[in-house]
Amino acid sequence: MNSTDEMLSLVKLLSNLIRLKIIGLLALQPRSLEQLATALSLSPKELVHHLDALTDGGLVAVNGQRVYSLEEKSLEQRAQRLLAQSRPSAAESEDLDAFDRKVLSDFMGRDGRLRSLPTQHKKLLSVLRYCSKLFEPGVRYTERDVNQTLARVHDDTAALRRALVDHRFMARSSGIYWRTDDAMPPPDATTG
Asked: Is the pTM of this model over 0.70?
């Protein structure tokens, strides 16, 4: 099973409220079917298929006396394996290349705020790449939301907001903004 399939399998197992409640109860202590049914105000018959799914998924174990317990070690190992597979390699771990890191180090104070906006186009693009990462892909933002987020970086939110749109790091329509992830210089911009 590849990491995507394993992740989907785990999410599917945990996407049911009853199963999440079972996991929560078993995290506190092992319990019998009857104890779980009482705690959840359900019949044992209603719980069996959930417990079977959790057992088949390796998240819960059952002993000979039909006492269920959380497979903490298995859950921990599975989570670590999934997280390790989803982590970028060392070469990919930085979203920013060396030039961007240098520019940000030159223009940002220890408080994480820009001391000034770069006037050189290439350096401004580094700052805009950084600022665009403050917004989630696929999320729509009002102008006020954009301003509040950018205010954490620099007081001139209008200039940053305009530059993000002009350089296609963000798009705007009817006062709503979103991250585009296809940034490119505007047609009249010069590089340098």
From this structure: no
